[in-house]
Amino acid sequence: MKFKSILLLLTIITIASCSSDDDTQNDPQNNCETPFGLAVSSVDISSVEITWTQLADITSYQVEYGVSGFSTGSGTTMNVFTNQAQISNLMPGTSYDFYVRSNCSAQSISTYSVSVTATTDDCPIPTGMFINNIGDMYADIGWDYIMHDFVVEYGPSGFTPGTGTTVETANSDISLNNLSPDTAYDVYVRVKCGTTLGDYSSVLQFTTFPICRVPESFRLDGVSSTWITVEWTDYWGSFWEVEYGAPGFPLGTGTVLQTDQMGYFVNGLTPNTTYEFYVRSNCGSDGYSEYSDPLTATTNP
């Protein structure tokens, strides 16, 4: 009787052991080798490339990825047919975890590999902001070249970034048009990294010219005992007004001379006398410019 009991017990153990072996052989994951040797081969702003050891007889793999710390089974998956994968459309400056499984058949897939982590590059910030040219209703600006598209934002000086006027460009310079004359502006530039915008550049500030500009380089051209010649430079105007008088005279109370030349021969002066001169542009329906800085000259004895 004791012998029969022992024999029965051995039979039960043998059957259970065989059953366990059968379950292991029928588990699809246990028959499909898990990838290993995961490594990051390249990283940029919006993509990561990973590689792993090529397994014998495996021709298809499933890559799963997500922001670092995600749970496997909840990430984004992609199937590849080599031992490398290029994952694109990622967020700049973000850490991601990557896992790989072997696809052995439609019903057989391996367990997840050990993860590998990579952080995408930050979206660059434009530098070297500069002004090429300024007019009364436009400004040409630029910045150091980066191989990206850009979003330019501008508005009246002191505006809050995010509330200004935006313009997109693929170039590292742009002409801002339809501006208001004689107005101060702030400009910022951001790099466009896919669907994400990088941080703002430092502010670039400029002021548009008034419609009627002050003549430049007001200067003395010649002096005698009874005359003085003055001249100036003006690339925008066609008519000018010269006013002169004793030093310190109130503007609007001096002697006024009109001219269509960029200079004036002021005659009939008193010898050995000091005079103060101003010039301004006469812009017709747009009015007058501001006065130039004063120019002081003394006639000869």
Give an account of the 3D structure:
The chain has 301 residues and is mainly beta. It has three domains: 39-119, Immunoglobulins (Immunoglobulin-like); 130-207, Sandwich (Immunoglobulin-like), CATH 2.60.40; 216-298, Immunoglobulin-like (Sandwich). 8% of the residues lie in helices and 40% in strands. The chain contains one helix and 22 strands. Strands 10, 11, 13, 14 and 15 form a five-stranded antiparallel sheet that branches. The radius of gyration is 40 Å and the shape is rod-shaped. The relative contact order is 0.11.
Label this structure with key terms.
single chain; Immunoglobulin-like; 3 domains; four-stranded antiparallel β-sheet
Ordered list of secondary-structure elements with their pairings:
Layout: H1 2-26, E1 39-43, E2 48-51, E3 61-67, E4 76-80, E5 84-87, E6 95-102, E7 116-119, E8 130-134, E9 139-142, E10 149-156, E11 165-169, E12 173-176, E13 184-193, E14 196-197, E15 204-207, E16 216-223, E17 228-233, E18 240-245, E19 255-259, E20 263-266, E21 274-281, E22 295-298
Antiparallel strand pairs: 1-2, 2-5, 3-4, 3-6, 6-7, 8-9, 9-12, 10-11, 10-13, 13-14, 13-15, 16-17, 17-20, 18-19, 18-21, 21-22
Gist of the model:
The chain has 301 residues and is mainly beta. It is built from one helix and 22 strands.
**Overall pLDDT confidence:** 90
Shape: rod-shaped
Number of separate strands: 22
Low-confidence stretches: 1-29
Q: Indicate how many domains the architecture comprises.
A: 3
In the CATH hierarchy, what is the superfamily of the largest domain?
Answer: Immunoglobulins
CATH architecture of the largest domain: Sandwich
